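USER: Note each token:
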Amino acid sequence: MVLSLRWCFRLGAIAAAFALGGIVSAQGPAPNPLPALQQSVSQRTAEWNTLATNLEQRVARLLPCDPQARAAIDEVSRASEARSVALTSYWTVASLQSKTQVEAIRRLLAQEEARVGDWVVDASQAQADVASAAALGTSLAASVAQVPALANPQKDLEAIAEQYRSLEKQAQERAAAHGRLVDNLRELLNTSQARQAAIDERVRTVSVEGQRWSAYYAARQARAQVECSLVNPAAAPAQPAVPRPASPVKKP
């Protein structure tokens, strides 16, 4: 009975630890912001793709010094920046959630590893109880022929020894189950840490990609200004005008 209660307590503690770590929650978990952030990424990416695909076609229709050329480039640059911000927000939140889960798993694993000895002691104690009851029963069995009144106590000891054997088996099974639990937690921790490393790498690449696109559109603006200067050396840099709506690209 003590072993069963202890095992039930451990299962409850494990579930509570996962809930506190944000892995599962039975009491109304907070809304996950990732779906909304993912939707924002999809929307910003689609907007940027549309503008970037049409950019050269739009600029090619304009004169080199037409303010609409710089305005079109600026519009695509802003769309690219909005996409980069959306991606950064998504992967930053994903990283924070992943780190919380990794820490919860790490704490739980440490707790379970510290309790490995408890189950070993229980199994050893059950084994000792079986041996003690069996030895006493054997001793009484040898005396039954001389003292018939010991027959009933001897049978009782056999029943007790059988109960101890059942408890020993349960203790061994629980010790084995706890060992599997620890192994599973170690595997889960390794997997979670690998996922965390991949997410952190994605955060880094999103930042680098955003910086590269920003530099590209800055260079594209500079190129437009050079082209204007070649046609009209006296032209001064002008503020970008409000861009005209982009014409949809007809698919062949």
In short: The chain has five helices and no strands. Residues 151-231 form the longest helix (81 residues).
